Amino acid sequence: MKTYSIATIPGDGIGKEVVPAGQQVLEALAKTSSTFRFEFENFDWGGDYYRQHGVMMPADGLDAIRNKDAILFGSAGDPHIPDHITLWGLRLKICQGFDQYANVRPTRILSGIDAPLKRCKPEDLNWVIVRENSEGEYSGVGGRVHQGHPIEAATDVSMMTRAGVERIMRFAFKLAQSRPRKLLTVITKSNAQRHAMVMWDEIALQISKEFPDVTWDKELVDASTARMINKPQTLDTIVATNLHADILSDLAAALAGSLGIAPTGNIDPEHRYPSMFEPIHGSAFDIMGKGLANPVGTFWSVVMLLEHLGEFDAAKQVMSAIEQVTANPKLHTGDLGGKATTVQVTQAVCELLTAGAQRKAA
Ligand code: NAD
Ligand code: MN
């Protein structure tokens, strides 16, 4: 029996509600498996930890999770702490510390979800957005001087490296190649940004030669928002910079029905470090502590976690349970226009996993 050790980091707000729900789903799944089990260790890092210790996570925190097989993360963001402190002090510390350079965000319209685009059939929207997750606009290079004086100046330098762009392009082409349509769109802004984005385009062309069976095109980021809405079926795999993909993936999540459903993986494709899986939503201050959070984004992140561990059958089982639940409007949470609670949705998914295993055994 294989044992996977998983770090859970709920963080703040509804992260504290959806991560335990995700753990329950993994536990229900493990009960049905004769080949693997999970060992969880929970870390109470986040806003409350900051109030006690002045930091979001301990200085040697990365060492505590370095040898885990994967990390399940909730959200970093507290109403009483500036967002740049919570983000850089926890989530980005882990992403950068473990060089999780590929952020992968699948988007589909799940069964039973009423998506906002009326002309878009569910099968028209089946995307994976690959976000460069280690440099670019969010590299952290920059500074601020003469604070409070009229001559105050501030910069956030977008830094791109050949190594960084080559590795994310190679990852995106490989991912596109693994999908049925073998179709990649490279998002750019090389008309206005004439240095780094021109290099980005050149490297895309260079890496494309390694993948002759992948069809690819280039789209300016602003035009791509219109294309996502008007011609969703022309897109499949999408690769973009840290900032561009951050924005496009929230748009994608909304087009698929709700921010509460969308998952993401912060992946180290070389498996040198643990990868981290999380719903793309934040702490949702308006509903936190009320048991109303949609846990589906976390469950779909659990599916990605299982795929990353190589447990593809288990991943399929969980995804199928999720889609059976979304297909039932009685099990929709408030973000989807329903009345279901986090606990009800979680129980429904767990029961389907158990029932599925019993059916198989019978
Ligand atoms: P948000 O995702 O927290 O909330 C946006 C809206 O969507 C809210 O109305 C919220 O109620 C709703 N929503 C989000 N997830 C939901 C779910 N699972 N179920 C039901 N409704 C859901 O975004 P925001 O308001 O911009 O940010 C709040 C805080 O979260 C900020 O501090 C921000 O920095 C942080 N944040 C963190 C992450 C992260 O850690 N990955 C991501 C985004 C935002
Ligand atoms: Mn974002």
TrEMBL record:
Catalytic activity, as annotated: (R)-malate + NAD(+) = pyruvate + CO2 + NADH
Entry superkingdom: Bacteria
Key words, A-Z: Manganese, Metal-binding, NAD, Oxidoreductase
UniProt enzyme class: oxidoreductase
Record carries keyword Nucleus: no
InterPro entries in the cross-refs: ICDH/IPMDH, IsoCit/isopropylmalate_DH_CS, IsoPropMal-DH-like_dom, TTC_DH
Domain named Isopropylmalate dehydrogenase-like: residues: 5-349
Keyword Phosphoprotein: no
Co-factor requirement: Mn(2+); Mg(2+)
EC code(s) of this entry: 1.1.1.83
GO molecular function, one term: D-malate dehydrogenase (decarboxylating) (NAD+) activity
Stated family: Belongs to the isocitrate and isopropylmalate dehydrogenases family.
Annotated protein name in UniProt: D-malate dehydrogenase (decarboxylating)
Organism the protein comes from: Piscinibacter terrae
Classification lineage: Bacteria, Pseudomonadati, Pseudomonadota, Betaproteobacteria, Burkholderiales
